[in-house]
Amino acid sequence: MKTAKYVLGAIFSCAVLIACGGKEEKKKEGFSYENKKDTSTSTATKDSNEIVISGNDLMQFDKTEIRVKAGQKVKVTLRHKGKLDVNVMGHNFVLLKQGVDLAGFAAEAAVAKDNEYIPEKTKDVIAHTSLIGAGQTTSVEFVAPAAGEYDYLCSFPGHYAMMKGKLIVE
Ligand code: ZN
Description:
3 helices, alpha/beta, Immunoglobulin-like, five-stranded mixed sheet
């Protein structure tokens, strides 16, 4: 009786070992396959018209020039990399139509606090994101306008002097 139990136990643990060994191998295969898949996905993202721009606590955009192709869909993602609250260091991305006076628009925007510093019913804006604070991300999609240069800015009061750049449509 005792001997039989021992033998059975030995067989059982052998089976467990084999099963575990097999599982581990499968996991490894799956893992390397997923890795390969991730690489191809990130390459695809690079090819699409997605722009990532970030703002910091020093009132700076990390990009002051963005190039896109006319008529293409563009997605601009804005990241706030600072530590300050939206009420102190709010950032947005506002793309203006051609011929709009940057300082004039910024002055109008500065008093539009209730509308996230976008003048209500404005006809000067092609696209804009919402206003964000530390650690937040926002994005906006639009179709690139006709070829030419367009100004973009952060419309939080006082920021446009430093937080501005050119969207160049080719
Ligand atoms: Zn700002």
